[in-house]
Structures are given as structure tokens and as C-alpha cells.
Amino acid sequence: MTDREFSQQDLEDARKLFAGPCDFMRGISTLDHLPEAALPEIAFAGRSNVGKSSLVNALTGRKTLARTSNTPGRTQQLNFFDLGGRLCLVDMPGYGYAKVSKTERAAWTKLIHGFLRGRAPLRCVFILVDSRHGLKESDLELMKMLDSTAVSYRIILTKADKSTPEEIEKISAVILEQLKKQAAAYPGVHATSSESGAGIAELRAILADFNPARA
């Protein structure tokens, strides 16, 4: 489910946007190093190893824009990318990780929550959820926090190529029921695959809509 029906022109315009410049701006591990708030920001959040970096790479058609790793918790900072002077994409540290120290986990959690609670240009948080597993307790905790601070968020399923269409439909239905209880949630689920490209073109168009005035 998306905001609206996208035309072929919408999809092509979004493709061109994401095929253009997407420059790494800054990686920060403390809130006092946040970049100047010059563009609308879209943040990508999710459990460790859910495929955040792979999705950012797939959206931009680049293989190494965002670093990927099989080691949970590898992304330890907020990484900011300038998308053609129209949007700022934020790749966030994974949560729900187990193979890090309590001190590191506490520091990363403080960074995530501090950013999400107090960032004025933040337009939406895309919460990435593995299509094979659905919402976990750590996802629900983040959703509750975003509800309490009125930060809009959406659920994006990842790794859809690893599930059947029937499995995707079933897990989406479960998530949609949960979203009815969440104050700040967008009432829809969008499935994607960084491997097959499924849902990527439409997700680009959804993102482009957050700053249409500067298209």
C-alpha cells in the first residue's frame, strides 16, 4: 500500500532523482555533531541486519553508498546522505543487537532516541521489518516512542524475495492490525527486496513526494 497511485512519469522522475547525486554528508556518534537542518529528512530504522544499508544502496543504484555487514550492530552512527539537494536520507544504527557491550548498546540507544525526539526537519521514519519475521518487541518499543513524540513513521518490509506472496500478505495483515493501535503510524505496509528490486521504484516515488516543491 502506498500514498497514492503513482504514474509512470512519477516513477521515472523518482528514478532520475535517485540516479543523480547522493553524497555522504556526515556520520555522527553524538548529537552535538548533527549537520545543519537544511533539507527534509527521512530516517531508516530497524533491527540489526534487517537490510537498512542494502535498501539505501538499492534505492540509489549504488553498491557501496551505505556500508553493509553480516555483523549485527556494525552501523554504529547516524549516517547522513544528501539526495540531489532535495532530501536528506539518514541511515540509523540497528537496534535489537546482542553482540555488543551494554555500554555500547546504551550509547547507541541514547543516540537514536535523542535524534528522533528532537530533530525538527525529520519528516518520517521508515521502520524496516524483515518480511519473514514481522514486528518484534524492539520494533514495538520504537513505535511507542514515536507515537509519544508525534513523529510519523511507516513500515517497510525487507527481503521480500525470501517470502512467498501469500506469506507477505499474511504478515502484512498482522502488521496492519497493529498499526491501527498506533497514533503516529501510516496505515500501510510496503514490501521491498534489495535483491530482486521489488517495490524499490515505488519506494523511490514515496520518498520523492516528501519534497515535491523542489522537483
Short description:
The chain is an alpha/beta fold and 215 residues long.
Please characterize this protein's 3D structure:
The protein is about 35% helix and about 20% strand. The chain has helices at about 10-20, 50-60, 100-120, 135-150, 165-180, 200-210, and strands at about 20-30, 40-45, 80-85, 85-90, 120-130, 155-160, 185-190. It has a seven-stranded mixed sheet with strand order 1-3-4-2-5-6-7, sandwiched between helices. The longest helix is centred in the middle third of the chain and has 17 residues, at about 100-120. The two termini are about 25 Å apart.
Strand content: 15-25%
> What is CATH's topology name?
Rossmann fold
Task: Look at the structure and give the mean pLDDT.
Answer: 88
H/E topology pattern:
HEEHEEHEHEHEH
Describe the largest sheet.
7 strands, mixed
Helical run tally: 6
Distance between the termini: 23 Å
Q: Care to count the β-strands? A: 7
Structural class: alpha/beta
CATH top level label: Alpha Beta
Total domains? 1
Rg, rounded, reads 16 Å
Q: From the coordinates shown, what is the CATH architecture?
A: 3-Layer(aba) Sandwich
Q: What portion of residues is helical?
A: 25-40%
Dominant shape:
globular
Read across the widest sheet, the strand sequence of neighbours is 1-3-4-2-5-6-7
